[in-house]
């Protein structure tokens, strides 16, 4: 079978891949985009990850507000959560997003092909769909393969049929007792959401603290918030075995410094990291090498070990955020146009959508210490931010790191309401090279959460004279 020839061949329609197609196809290059199934058009973010989870997290926020309405002066009667309606609200959003993506692909002129692709030669992809096979060859190939939830090697775990975030977002019922394995982004967001929907929740994490990459004071504050909401947290707990079936009855035996215990629940959610979607698709045939963890080897221009083949997003080991994947596209786009853009020294922020949100940009104290960077540290409790006083959202704090011998901002962390918006202010200042005094002395709108930045940076200790 003679290959169909394309100028641009994209495997994966996620945040990087779709932008490559939408940018290059209108420029005149014959472009094909291969996505493995219809429900993943546009990638994981709009279909199974970022946006659907935040949709349901907001439903959980509403449920929590209703539960505490009396504190705000609103008298309500008995209320309950209808998970079928929660799911339908999420599905409506996803269907609308898919329609938008389909229209963008149509307008771009790119050929969107639904099917499973496997490399059969360099830059040559065999795609099987509905019993038919097509062979596609691209002059330039772009890989945007993504990742999937890791199922840890725990005896009995696969047989228990655990939920991942994908299945959890499709539940139309409320678990009686949800056991969550993992204390990172997905585990924390879902644990809190389902507790607010009304489930009993136990969170098990192998790490000694929640959010293991964050400073201990941040993790400690998160732990207290979770405990105040009735979430049971077992840190430094190693799952030993699993029995039963998620959705019916499941038992998880864990070992911790306090000994062994068995947790009994109705449902089990695994949120223990990600695995790249690089196995079994013939990358070795294409000359694309992987690292020891299964991610595609790339340089700082996102070029793989194969000529004229690029990898972007999570499969290339980029930070696992949609905004990082979009920037990967920009790196590739600009270099294709003759530029000299790299992934080095990018200032990539994050936001975890617990309530309150946890957001950070730049270094935290733990990272600064590990790198031998001396920093001045200032903290401000959210209870000191006047906007928080008006809304009653006073949990958490802000923290800033400033260079010990200059006024350069090294990092900012916020555990507080609207943290994802406030962190952008500090990121902008860092990108502009503004000294911390610029935010300290800025006239910020009153009363907003961002106004707290002035008070925070006013607390930065004096510069070291050593």
Automatic annotation (TrEMBL):
SS bonds (residue pairs): 45-50
Residue span(s) of domain FAD/NAD(P)-binding: 6-327
A single GO molecular function term of this UniProt record: flavin adenine dinucleotide binding
Record: residues binding NAD(+): 182-189, 273
Keywords, comma-separated and alphabetical: FAD, Flavoprotein, NAD, Nucleotide-binding, Oxidoreductase
Cofactor: FAD
InterPro entries linked to this entry: FAD/NAD-bd_sf, FAD/NAD-binding_dom, FAD/NAD-linked_Rdtase_dimer_sf, Pyr_nuc-diS_OxRdtase, Pyr_nucl-diS_OxRdtase_dimer
Co-factor remark: Binds 1 FAD per subunit.
SUPFAM superfamilies named in the record: FAD/NAD(P)-binding domain, FAD/NAD-linked reductases, dimerisation (C-terminal) domain
Protein residues bound to FAD: 54, 117
Superkingdom of source: Bacteria
EC numbers, comma separated: 1.8.1.4
Active site: 446
Occurrences of domain Pyridine nucleotide-disulphide oxidoreductase dimerisation (ranges): 348-453
Recorded family membership: Belongs to the class-I pyridine nucleotide-disulfide oxidoreductase family.
Protein name: Dihydrolipoyl dehydrogenase
Organism of origin: Sorangium cellulosum (strain So ce56) (Polyangium cellulosum (strain So ce56))
Upper classification of the organism: Bacteria, Pseudomonadati, Myxococcota, Polyangia, Polyangiales
